[in-house]
Amino acid sequence: PGNCWAFKGHQGQVVIRLPARVYLTAITVQHITKDASPSGTIISAPRDIAVFVSLLGTSGGDLAPEGDKEEETLLGMFTYNVEQDSMQTFPLKNMLLPRAFSHVKLLVKSNWGNPRYTCIYRVKVHGKVENQRASTQD
Length: 138
What we know:
By secondary structure, the protein is mainly beta. It has a single domain, classed as Sandwich (Jelly Rolls), CATH 2.60.120.260. 0% of the residues lie in helices and 46% in strands. It has strands spanning 5-8, 12-30, 48-54, 72-79, 87-91, 101-108, 117-120, 122-129. Keywords: Membrane, Transmembrane, Transmembrane helix.
């Protein structure tokens, strides 16, 4: 139902380019509910997820191009729980890196049992835009 970002197997990653440099505070992941699923199961939902930023090129906050050695920093590891709300928000540990970033990497390490594919319906990145006093920007 609806559109999802699907990737083969139970592991995958995506690098999200933000519209501005952001002091990251949290990330929200959404999947459909069991009630909305035609099969009545949501085993394609992500399970174990890690969020990273790169310390290389910190003036731009960019992740290094593929193949380059990059020094990534883990901002959080969490488990998406299929027994809870379909939209779940997880706090990030940006206080360890009090700087803004323009890219964030979401690494899905496992799903809830589907061997063929994993689906994510929505990812929201929360934080404060650099050089703005706005509270929270999605």
